[in-house]
Inverse folding.
């Protein structure tokens, strides 16, 4: 039994963390904080939690008592906040799983370029482990600071990983046409996510300029062992949850679909949360699960890959808990089925 | 050909006014204002208007040149703003159609009770005409200041008017269970209308306390010629547009459905925008129209009435233009079919 | 550990039964049947189940081997089918939880009137226990045949039960304006539930003629110990899941809201799945849960009650499993949290 | 003033044709037919039409009196039906605008390959004019048989046409990731378009195998004057209306975005229904309009083009009426603004 705290409990990732953790047999939530004007029961903020957790949510201010006896702290806060508070928690001996982007990029200059500010804890970047269990499981085990992957990167990296051995793919051919539910934009009201603006309409946004692009490229580059650049175009879909990444790429030579599928099945053979589907997946198929469903079609040298996740689960909160399970030696799927 | 201006062009009612008016053969829009940081083409704010209207939108400040040569000004502004600016425009000889609630209640004390502030132009309340053409057509004809009805009141009053002759209905039995699309809450982002909050869920709100209640009661009282109180419960439905008011009431004595239907058909005989349907209407049936569709079922003394409108059209903008047509002697449906 | 079978596994209630049961520690699913052209893995029908259950689904034909070693059979079939097959399963010593309407009405004449056919197993009607645990827990314990309540009845009866002591409510004043997600209409495609017909629109249907009316009246009558008739008007809401019943009634005398709330809290004091909320509930608050959330407002003699459930969970499948837990002596919430 | 008939008035394209034509000053609808069990007022089938058109809809059977005095017949019927009935109407001297795919492909073998049946009127294929006014305006003027373009092809061809001059684009690099609202699948209920299946989920379908692929390739090939093959992947989006085609391609050499935009503006200079937008378009921006909105971003040799239309308007019915206007010498936008 470990004790955990959540900073950012009033956002959607925070809410999902709570919903998963209250059913987790090895965890006790001891402290919640978020954006609140005064101390407020979390079940007043999220009435769906009534009767399921009796805990107050505090407005976040850092001091030595913050997060109290917690062994592990989930940071479900906006970018730029984590890099400020993570070092302080680490210095108190807490472990950290950071759901923001602050520790995902290895290169502080890249961070500055894409997030617009100087990185305040650049020295931690080399310590942080990128929390994608299917790729970094052994490093996660001993980590103190997990950079939990972004939602788009999770779907794209898992969708591509089995193909990225040298010499197989035209690395400059990768196009990702991604589609997300609106919850990915968070819980702070904006015209961008106003009901009547987004309902019954689809549009592209941050075209070729989404901040998840360097994160995806960094990880694909490591897997391919050579520089990978992608064309990444996200879209807002009129639904609450789910990401579908439709990935297009060209192989160096014609390969039978069956052989490619075999590569995927081998690569993910032991993975409990990757499913190779034999029909095009619906984002709904993975709703409220930690699954990533993958489907592909090959035609001569062209491949189209479909990778779907729940953006708030495998794309954020349930993956964070999968990481926690690994860090603390619990069975990896505990609380996630 | 008349010249019109719109104050509040950046909201949803403003946008719909523009969309209807650009097809109106007797109207030229000469001036637009709204909440903008700097002068901005209206087609930048609403890209759907590109190529359909070339006009800039100004941030609203009142001076003698405001609205320029306009004969008529539509005020599509929040409550409390209209009562401030309407008198100034009137004193410049402009006609006004006010889409806010400021001139709908005859009693300034009632206004204060429900809207929380003192009415600043109380003397205009007796001059303002309630712009429901089916009831007040002749008064609208000569009016200078129209109080355009609220969306819920339009659907409820039209749904009930034919029954309110004395002695027919148990006046204290009226219950209105109303359902609205989210656009009714306007275009300013709030947690209340955030996509992920409202999507895939229905809830009641402002239960027995919605500010449209006194407006409905005032008008029903006039029609019934005795005091009417109602039970009014609105709900937020996960859709953009449309209002369905389901109205329950008890008759003083059993009446055949057929006879009641006859009363409705007689009452609305010459009305171009009221349709008595013979099946339960969908809110979608009246989308982008000025129609109010009504359907009813009677069983002994109990009647259930369904009244649907497009909240942004008959419940706001197209009704405002219907009023304009009457005021200026145009054929009543001009631009509305 | 018990063994269960599901007849009707290819519908939405069947799917939800499977999703709940595969996480239930005391249950093994041994047999699935439904509408299939040939034996098909259930995970082909519902790809979301891939990797979570490996079981084939058979086309339903009754013989002595059907359902094999199951101790309990869930019938998630259309009305009129259950009354045909339930007796056969019972004669094989199986226990039955029937999610159809076939055993809910005590009076076979009422069944004929509302469902249009003669009841084939009328003698079983007195044996069947109405599976609403909050009211019939002790009878459920020893039952062999559970008539699992309808979705609307569950929300309405639970919303009203605490008030129905004699002399408190004007029993002829009850109006239920109910709103349901589309999944309530099942998985068989019809124009009525076609995406483009239902999307972005709300409408009433089966007005004063919905087949759940006599079920609700029967149970309210038992609770009140005198004849209760209600006005019941259901509506289709553009969402997948959830029911909100807005219930209007008149008290015999003015009562303080606080006192009425007290009655609710007392009545449901020990109930793990009833939550008295202090704000108007969203249907989303109970999604994928066995909760029924209740909220009310009183004003003089008028009361408005909001009762929300997930129509496929507390309104069907999770309630069926709650009944199973009671029948077999498992802790009542097992598998439901 | 011309007289028109519609075959297939009970589908969504038929409904939209009616809604546009009843406002068209030069047209009288004289006859409607569709799938009906008996002669039925069209306003019973579509209650939204009540009071707007009083015409019966007949079940379709061909004889010499069919379509009566109509000068022009719209065929809004499933594929395979048009090729059967179009020749008969032509031989009666009627003009035809066919909204099905039957006359879009020039090569009957290609038709057989993609639509699975022998073409019955192959000799008409050379007579039929592909009804995309922006490309074939002069041929449309004199045509008797118009093959109205498919919804996807309209968005893709218009999105690409300005670039297809020889030597500019890598013709084998074109990838189209298309997204459609559900109404594109028609009005016949199927599990595929069942509300609860499609709501809140996105998925790819007919991947690399959609029947619009050869139509797009045929037209791009004509424009480019050399063989063009594309990668075409359509997706179903949880909304009723609208298509967004996101088109990826590689240029032969780096070109400034500004120069490419200039090519688009020149190409569509005089076109009333093409708008080059300066921000990523929402499908909602063109709802209920005949507009195609185009936006693009270029980065070195990579271009991403966004092309949005209303699938039932510019993608079907309003484009059919645009074609009618051209054929009969009416101002091209009559009835479409």
């Amino acid at each position: 039994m470990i004790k955990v705290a959540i900073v950012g409990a009033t956002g959607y990732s925070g809410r999902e963390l709570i919903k998963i953790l209250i059913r987790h047999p090895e965890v006790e939530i001891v402290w919640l904080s978020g954006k609140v004007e005064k101390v407020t029961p979390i079940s007043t903020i999220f009435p769906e939690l009534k009767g399921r957790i009796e805990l107050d949510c505090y407005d976040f201010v850092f001091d030595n008592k913050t997060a109290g006896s917690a062994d592990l702290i989930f940071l479900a806060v906006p970018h730029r906040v984590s890099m400020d508070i993570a070092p302080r928690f680490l210095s108190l001996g807490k472990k950290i799983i950071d759901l923001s982007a602050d520790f995902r990029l290895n290169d502080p200059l890249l961070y500055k370029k894409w997030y617009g500010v100087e990185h305040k804890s650049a020295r931690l970047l080399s310590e942080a482990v990128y929390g994608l269990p299917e790729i970094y499981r052994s490093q996660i085990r001993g980590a103190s600071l997990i950079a939990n992957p972004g939602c788009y990167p999770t779907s794209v990296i898992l969708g591509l990983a089995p193909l990225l051995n040298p010499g197989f793919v035209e690395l400059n051919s990768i196009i990702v046409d991604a589609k997300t539910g609106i919850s990915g934009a968070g819980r702070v009201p904006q015209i961008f996510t106003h009901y009547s603006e987004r309902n019954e309409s689809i549009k592209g946004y941050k075209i070729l300029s989404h901040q998840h692009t360097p994160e995806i490229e960094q990880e694909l580059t490591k897997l391919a062992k050579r520089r990978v650049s992608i064309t990444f175009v996200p879209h807002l879909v009129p639904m609450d949850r789910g990401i579908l990444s439709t990935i297009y790429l060209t192989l160096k030579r014609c390969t039978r679909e069956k052989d490619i599928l075999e590569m995927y099945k081998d690569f993910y053979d032991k993975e409990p949360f990757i499913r190779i589907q034999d029909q095009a997946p619906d984002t709904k198929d993975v709703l409220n699960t930690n699954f990533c469903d993958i489907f592909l079609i090959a035609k001569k040298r062209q491949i189209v890959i479909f990778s779907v996740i729940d953006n708030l689960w495998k794309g954020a909160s349930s993956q964070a808990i999968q990481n926690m399970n690994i860090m603390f030696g619990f069975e990896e799927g505990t609380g996630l089925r």
Observations:
- Chain B is about 25% helix and 20% strand.
